[in-house]
Amino acid sequence: MLILSGRPSPYIIAFLLGESLLMVVGAGLAVYFRLGTASEILTFRYSWYRLLLVPVVLQVAFYYSDLHNFRISRPFIWTVARVTQAMAVGTLGLAVIYYFLPRLLLGRGILFLSFFITTLLVLIWRGLYSWALRQRFLASRVLIVGSGSLADSIIEELLSRSDNLYNVVGLMDLSGSGRRAGDDPTQDVDLMPQWASLLRAELRRESSELVGLIGYLEVDLVVVAMDEKRGRMPMDELLECRLLGVPIITGEDFYENIAGRILAERIRPGWMVFSPGFTTSRMRRFTKRSMDLALSGVGLVLTAPFTALVALAIKLESKGPVIYSQQRVGQNGQLFHAHKFRSMVTDAEQQTGPVWAEENDPRVTKVGRFIRKVRLDEIPQMYNVIKGEMSFVGPRPERPHFVEQLTAELPFYNERHKVKPGITGWAQVCYPYGSTVAAALEKLNYDLYYIKHTSLSLDLLIILQTIKIILFGGGGR
Fold it and tell me: What is the pLDDT of residues 411-468, one digit of tens each?
């Protein structure tokens, strides 16, 4: 089963639903142990919406404590510490809600007891889930056909994830007898024997073995990840496998699914022409524009007090305008002026011309460093959203000078201008700030993925991730 990286997998959804149920059970058990009866749970005082509030608040605390991120492998002691911390924050949040809405109160003694019971249940549940992932009980069995940079990228991505739901059980290298370091300096090093050893997977080099290997290894999915397909693709064997009911997918598509980005340097125009996605319906445009107007309107109202304070701080620290406007490239290549709170000294590029911001950039003021860290410098761009020049979510708009440079150096760079640029985007929440062409390529890979899979649910996920970054740091300079 293929699962898009930009969407929660069914396993993660089932896990979170199970965990939320345990939170309700924890609150119910607290009622039972406190009052000595379970019948109170069914009365009006302890009706379902009071219990339902518990997992809602706790899961919000878990999300912003990074406990919904299963990609990174962490020691169980980290999980114990972070779950305890998140439970404390969530319990405090419930106490605040109960203070303002006392009719929802379960009881102080029940709340205190629920903290310990629920923490224990959650830790047991998470321990079992981590064990199941390590044992690969839920993983699909995958055979990779091919070798080279694409196959290497796929395997590296799979090995980097602790929530990997694909178990590579076989590798088939059809490049010949294999390549070794030092054989030819113009050729890539053959890593397939090392990958096979690391993955504990079968390695074969003859296409005639493909059908038998699939049956022997009980393969659920075949990934064709050949750098050079012409003349080497085992079409007869692959066709036989497909007729036996085994799904087959290209390496480019598989990498996109597991990594949440598209390898721009690997794809060709024909792939984009025939690949599903890259479509925007009228309803999608309507809902996106409605969300943009709603979020920007509410955002400008909520940030009004900060706007006044930021403007005053900028004016007091250095001479120059409070709002800095800069020409950017928008949808379909149209130029517009993006507005931001000034975070650098006036005429910062007078001597150098257009340059990317750097880490610890000396041109950034003290106030500018702070407002960049917490994204307050982006507030004026909500006016650009209301005007229709930008969207709340989309690829970040770049300056014409850099667009010209990157278009010449990076494949499909102009394709990111097919949608409106955004205040935040998939690349911004998935990749740290970078000021090089290589970093621009990585962000382009994420931008192309967003353009292909654009949806309301992905926009909401990006907004939630952006809020987390604002609260806990990371990202732009």
Answer: 999 999 999 999 999 999 998 877 788 889 999 999 999 999 999 989 999 999 998 8
- Token pair listed for 423: 């205040």
pLDDT band per the 50, 70, 90 thresholds, residue 360? low
Read off the tokens for 163.
Answer: 């929530």
Smallest CA-to-CA distance from 291 within 454, 431, 180 is with 454
Question: Rounded CA gap, 157 and 265, in Å?
Answer: 17
Question: What is the value of pTM for the model shown?
Answer: 0.84
Residues 6+ apart with CB under 8 A from 292: 385, 386, 391, 392
Tokens encoding 154: 């796929």
Question: Which amino acid makes up residue 305?
Answer: P
Q: What value does the CA radius of gyration of the chain take, rounded to a whole number of Å?
A: 26
pLDDT at 477: 41
> What's the CA gap between 41 and 204, in Å, rounded?
61
* DSSP for 151-176, written as a single string: HHHHHHHHHT-TT--EEEEEEE--SS
pLDDT bucket at 350, cuts 50 / 70 / 90: low
Report whether 164 contacts 264 (CB < 8 A): no
* Cβ neighbours around 171 below 10 Å, total: 25
CA dist 248 and 232 (Å) reads: 16
In the numeric block, the tokens 């004016």 are attached to 315
Residues paired with 141 in a beta bridge = 167
Which DSSP category does 220 fall into?
S
pLDDT category of residue 180 using cuts at 50, 70 and 90: very low
Task: Give the integer Cα–Cα distance in Å for 135 and 129.
Answer: 10
Residue 168 φ then ψ, to 5°: -75, 110
Q: If you ran DSSP here, which 8-state letter would residue 41 be given?
A: G
* Strand pairing class (140-145; 221-224): parallel
CA 149 distance to own-chain centroid: 23
In this model, does residue 5 exceed pLDDT 60? Answer: no
Q: Residue 26: how many CB atoms within 10 A of its CB?
A: 25
Structural domains of the chain, with CATH: 10-134 (no CATH), 140-260 (3.40.50.720), 282-472 (no CATH)
Mean pLDDT of 99-120: 87
Sequence-distant (6+) residues with CB within 8 A of 100 are none
